[in-house]
Amino acid sequence: MKKRILTWLLAISMLGSLLTVPAGAAAVTKFSDVSDSYTATAVESLRLMGVLDGYGDGTFRPDTVLNRAQFCKMAVYAMDGSGELGRYSTVTIFPDVKPSHWASAYINMAARKGIISGFADGKFKPGQTVTAGQAVTILMRGLGYKDEDMGGVWPQSYMAEAQTNGLLKSTGITSAYAGLTRAQAAKLFLNLFEAKHGKGETLLFNYNVGKDEVYLTAVDGGKGTMTAGGKTYTMAHPVASTSLIGSKGKAVLNSAGEILTFLPITGSNGISNAAVIIGSNGSAAGLDSLAGGASYSIYKNGSLARVKDLKQYDVATYASATNSIIVSDTRVTTYYESCKPSPSNPVTITVLGGKELNVLPTAVDSLSKLKPGKQIVLLLTADGQVAGAEDADKGNIRGNAVAVVSEKGDVQLVCGGALLNIGTASEYAGQAVAVSSDKGGLKLNKISGGVGGDLLPKEGTLGGRKLADNVMLFDGGRQIALSELSQTGVNSGRVSYARTNWAGQVDLIVLNSGLAEDVIYGRAVVNSSTSKVWVWYPGHENDEEQQEGVNGSYKETTSQTISIETASKTYGPINSGNHVSNGAFVAVSIKTSSQGNLMFTRFDTMSKLSNVSSSAWIGKTAVTFGSRTYEVPSNVQCYNDDTGKWMTLDDAKAYGGTMNLYVYDGVVRIVEVKA
Fold it and tell me: Using CB atoms within 10 A of its CB, is residue 89 exposed (0-12), middle (13-18) or buried (19+)?
């Protein structure tokens, strides 16, 4: 039976030796010893719940380790069980936890609920440091995971599952046997809200996390209210903390409909609310302070970069989870429709035909100088927030925003390495479009071209250009992985649009098919059959009886099926009207229909280079024939005509002195050897 958590509300009483809540310190919004933005976000989110706070000297002490009793108490207050504590205060389950122990009720209750257990000697050892593996096991059991379903060896099995279900996200936990720190505990409990539940019937953690992403606009600790998404909620535990105002995220409610806390997006992905806009001289002043003085890596649109690779108007944010500066060069020209709460102090801005975007505090100054009703250029972070704005009429900066329209018509703005839905346009389904807006609303213009050539997933190239590590690939508007394509490659004819990034690498590819399609290079195996078909004479199609030579006659027809044999598998047979000789080497595009049937969408015979000598080879990557050099991919297929079997290139070269090479689009696709 599922239980609802959700009180965490007597947490002040639990804090005692665990978490010090000094008098008058509720309004503190920044700790002197917390520079990690993810940790700060986790603490602030849990502060709004009244669960965590710092010490009287303004510190949080993030590296202080917790003991087993302290963490057990935190876990119990994550259950809807505060009313049950009394029944566990006078019993003794573990010999080293007497009723007089300060945490006895919490430990006994957790044991009875099945989320904790003692050691082999029967003791609980409450003062012993709690390890990450122990803490994770407790929370996983509360999420409905059973020991018998985990398999493997404890605690590794629980740690592996926790990594999968999101509980360990950005915690920095690498060892199950290391002591758990206060900072790591804060992150674990924050992740608990959105971690995937197990299949167990006993679910002790059952939060009501809102489905919609909204903006937090007000926290009034005096009145005990919090406003998010235009709706004002009663706070389950009133606290004066304003540091998350302006964040976009999700409201978390208890069973009574009271708001427990707010989960900012910036907290879940580790990107900070602060941003730095690169200056006209490429100055990166401010990056060090953005990262809190720590050393960091720089990623521009997902690719590793250096300071000298940054350009004017690039936007930099800090991702604490990876200790990285995340740089985006996405800019969009748009009509300024409206904002909230006011043009002089905007928290959100409405643009692009009704899309509401979050305005970072660092963008308020530039945006406040612009008024609704103007054409402006917005500078966007990698997660689609507004970091700055410029007057489009001045012409100092132009938009470069590109979107890919899904099969359903959703316009997916490519923002850094992420996608942001900004509207619908079914007429552009499956296509790449340039994005802007004017007074009339969202404006889309189809774009095509860019980098041309074959896409070779195994080589990691498109038309000879290297693919970016984070290349985004779309087929019919659906984002797919390179691994979903045939490793033999995709013909250039299918590449509708391909874009290069700042480093000259291909970072966006849009294919022009709405169905999964592979380019296959192989050997045609043709099977023909003859049958007789009755053909009515004109004007006799409605006759009830067939009379040979009177109202019709039988004619012989030949039907043909074609299979494409490759080194790894055979495709087909497919009923086809394509005429090709049995054994011919061909290049075909094979598509799977919505009914699951294979079909040819392109069928070409490859060019043949006859009797190529071994001396024509330039290593394994190229061959010269006549006056032209042809590329040979590393996965080229080789066929032995004598044995009827496929072989490796090394075996093919060793088999005979000459070969026949079959070429398509200037690339050798098949090597054929004979005695």
Answer: middle
**pLDDT tens-place string over residues 158-200:** 888 888 888 888 788 888 899 999 889 888 988 888 888 887 6
449-450 and 495-500 beta bridge pairing: parallel
pLDDT, tens digit (0-9, with 9 covering 90-100), for 521-538: 899 998 877 767 778 888
Q: Taking Cα atoms as reference points, which of 113, 111, 89 lies closest to residue 102?
A: 89
Q: What is the pLDDT of residue 294?
A: 65
Distance CA 165, CA 657 (A): 57
Q: Which residues contact 13 (CB under 8 A, 6 or more apart)?
A: none
Better-scored residue on pLDDT, 251 or 481: 251
Spell out the residues 6+ positions from residue 459 whose beta carbon is closer than 8 angstroms to its own.
Answer: 633, 634
Taking the C-alpha atoms of residue 336 and residue 350, their distance in angstroms, rounded to an integer, is 7
φ/ψ region of 13 (left if φ > 0, alpha if ψ in -120 to 50, else beta) reads: alpha
Alpha helices in 250-409 (DSSP H): 265-269, 287-290, 364-368
Pairwise CA distance, residues 345 & 616, whole Å:
71
647: pLDDT confidence band, cut at 50, 70 and 90?
very high
Query: Under 8 Å CB-to-CB from 333, ≥6 apart: which residues?
Result: 375, 376, 377, 392, 398, 399, 401, 436, 437
> Torsion angle, CA of 377/378/379/380, rounded to 10 degrees?
-150
Residue 202 near residue 144, CB atoms below 8 Å? yes
pTM given for the model? 0.45
- Of the pLDDT bands very low, low, confident and very high (cuts 50, 70, 90), residue 25 is very low
> What is the residue-wise DSSP string for 175-226?
-TTSBPBHHHHHHHHHHHTTSPP-S-S--S---EE-SS-EEEEEEETTTTEE
Tokens representing 504 are 């000259």
What integer best gives the mean pLDDT of the chain? 80
Show the CA angle centred on residue 519, arms to residues 516 and 524, nearest 5°.
Answer: 120
